[in-house]
Amino acid sequence: MIFENIKEESKQKIVTAALREFAENGYNRASTNSIVKRAGVGKGMLYYYFKNKYELYVYLITQSLGVIEEHVNKQINLDETDFFERYRQTVDIEMKVYMENADFFNFMSYVFVMENDHLPNDLSDSIEQLKTEGFGSLYKNIDLTKFRDDIDVEKALQLIQWALDGYQQQLIERLKGTDFSNFEFEVYQKEFMEYLNVLKTSFYH
Amino acid sequence: MIFENIKEESKQKIVTAALREFAENGYNRASTNSIVKRAGVGKGMLYYYFKNKYELYVYLITQSLGVIEEHVNKQINLDETDFFERYRQTVDIEMKVYMENADFFNFMSYVFVMENDHLPNDLSDSIEQLKTEGFGSLYKNIDLTKFRDDIDVEKALQLIQWALDGYQQQLIERLKGTDFSNFEFEVYQKEFMEYLNVLKTSFYH
DNA sequence: ATACTCATTGACTGAAATGGTCAATAACTT
DNA sequence: AAGTTATTGACCATTTCAGTCAATGAGTAT
């Protein structure tokens, strides 16, 4: 059960099935028929609880972003002014949440990292907005004086962002399809730290 | 005319139309009906020159990779041992080719950068192979002693790769849909150099 | 028992789009 | 006139899709 406080059993089943279906196929290729088959309920139930496919998708995104945001906001330490340490903490928290549910992780990968097919309407925009909002806490109260004076800090931060995005994307690729049962969190943590240290050494004076 | 040496006029039309269709939609969403409509030829012509949709796609990829490879191989200077300068040269050459034809550029974006939908058979693998082969010349005869001794060079190179991939992806996003007519090559070149310099300053001793 | 409400079903709809075929024919060449 | 090559587009069979709705089951209140 990813999202609590859903009393209705069938709705719960649909939400769980939909999360997996969207995680595997993205919005456009995901099929409502497949969702209800997976959920083991009649087709009508989907349209009893949700107006249509689109609203179901929006519901999932909203809930998911809420879950992540809640965890990060609750656990992040804004007194830590070191950029890399802040980054490490953020990813740490997120990873712990994702590990609870691989479908959730893959769904978020679709929403965040992968191209959102051709999403209808303005959903694509609002995802982008929520994404950058989410990244906001990444830069709050960060000590930029630690960076070398002979480089353009803004460009450096951008490059670091891109590099770490690359690392995460590669991690997603590696983890795709696994159920996380044999995922060694400590091993990943160590590897991630090593990459962070390379960046730290290079970009700090 | 992107690929020369096609005498057959109709085949040429189909290839041009197909490049655009695939560039806009990727493999799965691209429609053969749409291609022939765009090409202004009868449906049968597509199946006169190509066995099926898949073979048409493979043909385009093969040709495209050939064009790029040819240009790079002909123009790259392997005596240049500086990694960043090598990278700059490579991207430079590629950009000049892409600027001749925006469809070609967008098609290659799909093949390389974006997720290849769920490509049939082993095509996805062979693209990956050609991609890494292509990157091969990026590391040939490179002077690694220029890198700082206090960092893991292999990890550093990987991070640089990810960062510059990020830059390129962002560039693709910015250029998407444009016809390149108002694309200021020198402006882009300058910007790219600035990012390269940040990396150079940070990772070289 | 009766009536009423909420939950649930799945066969069905109509539309769209798909890749691919093929008999017919036009356009050239010999 | 015969033969070859290029070209057409109506047509096919199939799939898939989001969404509907009359029917019914389950539970509760009267």
From TrEMBL, chains A, B:
Entry-linked InterPro entries: DNA-bd_HTH_TetR-type_CS, Homeodomain-like_sf, HTH-type_Tx_Regulator, HTH_TetR, Tet_transcr_reg_TetR-rel_C_sf
GO terms for MF: DNA binding
One Pfam family recorded for the sequence: TetR_N
Keyword annotations of the record: DNA-binding, Repressor
DNA-binding region extent: 31-50
PROSITE patterns per the UniProt record, alphabetical: HTH_TETR_1, HTH_TETR_2
Domain HTH tetR-type: 8-68
Keyword Repressor in annotation: yes
Name listed for the protein in its UniProt record: TetR family transcriptional regulator
Species of provenance: Aquisalibacillus elongatus
